[in-house]
Amino acid sequence: MLSIQSTSNHVFLYSLAFAALTSRDVQIETDQHRPGSNGLSVSGLALTKAFLKLTAAESEGVSLGSKCIKLFPGVIQSGSYTIHLGNGNSISEFLVVALLGCCFASDTTHLKVTGASDRAGSISIDYFEKVLLPFYKQFADFKWRLVTRDFEPGGRAKLDLVIKPKHKITHEEFYSKGSQTVLTPLDLSKKGKIDSICGVSVASKDLSERFVAERQITGVRQAFADQGYQVKIKKEYVQTSATGTAVTLWVRSREEGELLPVTIGSYSYGERSKRAEFVGADAAEDLMDEFERGGVVDSELSKHLLPVLSLTGGRFLAAEVGKSHNLVIELIKIFGLPEVGVKTEGDSELLISL
C-alpha cells in the first residue's frame, strides 16, 4: 500500500486521481493540509465518496475529520454514474479526481454531476472546459454539457459529461512508458503573438438589474484598452440558488499564421464588497501577467498538465516551478508512473518527461 502525506489540497486531489488511474491501494494522511487541520474536510469527504463510487473501492476511515484514510480501488468500469457532491463542493475538483481514470476505462463513462460550478479556491468550470480539457482530448472523446450553473455555497449546478476512451492501455504499459509510444508527446514551447482575448462573464440572475455581467466585461475591456487586442467575451445570466459572479478569460495566439493551443487563461470571482468592474479587471491583469512571464503555459495549467506529460512524454515551458509542481512530480514517482523532471531554460522552467 502506498503511503502519502496530503500536505495540500492539490496533493489530495491527485492522490485520488492517480489511485483511480492505476487502481493502486493508498493510505492518505489527511491532517497535513495546514497547522491545526481538522482532518478530512467536508469537500474532501464528498470527493472521496465520489471516488469510492466511481472505482467500486473498499475503504477504511472515510469520515468527516478523519486523520487517515485507506482506499482499495478497483478498475473504473464503463457505465453511467450519478454523483451528488453537495452544497459548495466543486465540480472542477471532482473532474480532476475522475477524468484521468475515466479516459482509460474499458468503455464509455457517463458522468452526471451536481455541485458548485464556480467556487473560490477552485478553478472555474469555464477554465476547466476551455483551457484544461482540450489536453485530455487525445485520450478520449468528450460530450460536455453544462446543464445549469451554481455558485458557492449552492450546489445545484449540473454537468453532463460523456467520456469515450480512444486507447486501450494497461497499467503495466503506463509504468513502462508504453503509453508514450501510443500517445502524442506534449510540445508546448511556442507562445506566439496574441490573436484575441476570449472569455465568459457570468452572473446570477438576481444581479441582472445591476448589469453586473456587462460591468465585468467593461472592466476587462478597460484593462486592455491600450493594447489593441480583439476582445471577445460572452455574457451570461443564470438562475442559481446562490448569488455569485465569475469571469474566465483565455488567450488565442498565433505563430507564423498558425493558431496555437490555448495555454494561458485566468479567472476571477465576485465578492460582496467588490465592484464588478474590478472582478473583470483582476481577471484581465492576471491574464496579461501570465502571458508576459517567461513560460508558455500559465501557472495553473502547468500544475494540471504534469500527469498528462507523464503519460504522453514531451515537454512544456512554465514560468516557474513551485511547491505544488514539485509535490505532484513526487506523487507521479510514488505511483510508479513515468517520471517528470525540471530543467532551467533562460528565464523559464522546462518540464520534461524523463
Concise overview:
The protein has 354 residues and is an alpha+beta fold. Helix content is 31%, strand content 30%.
Quick tags:
2 domains, alpha+beta, four-stranded mixed beta sheet, 354 residues, UDP-n-acetylglucosamine1-carboxyvinyl-transferase, Chain, five-stranded mixed beta sheet, Dihydrodipicolinate Reductase, domain 2, globular
Protein described:
The protein has 354 residues and is α+β, with helices and mostly antiparallel strands. The chain has two domains: 2-183, RNA 3'-terminal phosphate cyclase domain (UDP-n-acetylglucosamine1-carboxyvinyl-transferase, Chain, Alpha-beta prism); 193-292, RNA 3'-terminal phosphate cyclase, insert domain (Dihydrodipicolinate Reductase, domain 2, 2-Layer Sandwich), CATH 3.30.360. It contains ten helices and 17 strands. The protein has helices at 9-22, 42-55, 91-103, 125-132, 171-175, 212-223, 276-292, 299-304, 306-312, 323-334, and strands at 2-5, 26-29, 58-60, 68-72, 79-84, 109-115, 140-148, 157-165, 186-188, 193-204, 231-238, 245-255, 258-259, 265-269, 314-318, 340-345, 348-353. Strands 10, 11, 12, 13 and 14 form a five-stranded mixed sheet that branches. The protein has a four-stranded mixed sheet with strand order 1-2-4-3, with helices on one face. Strands 5-6-8-7 form a four-stranded mixed sheet, covered by helices on one side. Helix 1 packs parallel to helix 10 and helix 6 packs parallel to helix 7 (276-292). The radius of gyration is 20 Å and the shape is globular.
